[in-house]
Amino acid sequence: DKLGAYKITYTAVHNRPDCGHPDDTPVIGDTPTRPHRRPKPVEPAEPTVSETPEVPEVSEVPEIPEIPETPAASVSFGDVKETDYFGPAVNWAVEKGITAGTAEGRFSPNESCSRAQILTMLWAAMGCPRAEKDAEFGDIPSGAYYLEAVKWAVEKGLTSGTSANMFSPDAPCTRAQAMMFLYGCFGSPVENTAFSDIAPGAYYEKAAGWAASAGISAGIGGGKFGPEIECTRAQIVTFLYSVPQLKSE
Q1: Model confidence over 14-47: pLDDT tens digits?
Q2: What are the backbone angles phi and psi of residue 230, rounded to the nearest 5°?
Q3: What is the pTM of this model?
Q4: What torsion, rounded to 10 degrees, do the Cα atoms 194, 197, 202, 205 define?
Q5: Which of 74, 121, 197, 243 is the most buried (most CB within 10 A)?
Q6: Cα separation of 189 and 140, whole Å?
Q7: Closest Cα partner for 179 from 137, 224, 226?
Q8: Residue 17 phi/psi, 5° resolution?
Q9: Considering Cα of 133, then 175, then 193, then 161, what sign does the dihedral take?
Q10: What is the CB neighbour count within 10 angstroms for residue 116?
Q11: What is the DSSP letter of 177?
């Protein structure tokens, strides 16, 4: 009948799960949870290898400039000034080992230069060559500071002494003798230079002419050479300094 059909329909509808029937309402706290899913394992990332930083090129070590040699200081002698005409010559002679002065701090430029002294200076300027023969002079004691210089001078033909067996080492050296010693080592014949006080054929004529032409000595002025004038130590060292062959070394 109709009533029965209605009941059946009502019951069927209300018993559907999606009709919100009070008996089907979930209780708070009983909300069904979704099934737990195991998280997908994450593969570890490959370690990133940092690139090796480029090593900066090492710049070449700059070359150390050569340090120029320090020029020798001027020699300090209490009686020698840089402004003296013989100042450069004295400094040169000391630096070359030609002379060390007469005493501590003194050169004694105005003292007469002895025959022994000039030959010793010339011998030192030539490099102290050793002679093979002895010099037989009765006035040269054994062990004298100038002995080797005199032996060398005799062997080279620069001197034969002042007599047969005398050298006169302490006698002052004259300008004529000084030019003869230098001429014997470095000189060469030149046309005679006219000096009014040099007699034709004098033993030192050629030496004086060579010294004038080489710029070693122009005489004492007034057209004179002054051959018999005694040389000072300042003059002798200046003569040596003026020899082209020595100065250029």
Answers
A1: 444 443 434 443 333 433 444 445 555 555 454 4
A2: -70, 140
A3: 0.69
A4: -40
A5: 121
A6: 32
A7: 226
A8: -60, -25
A9: negative
A10: 21
A11: H
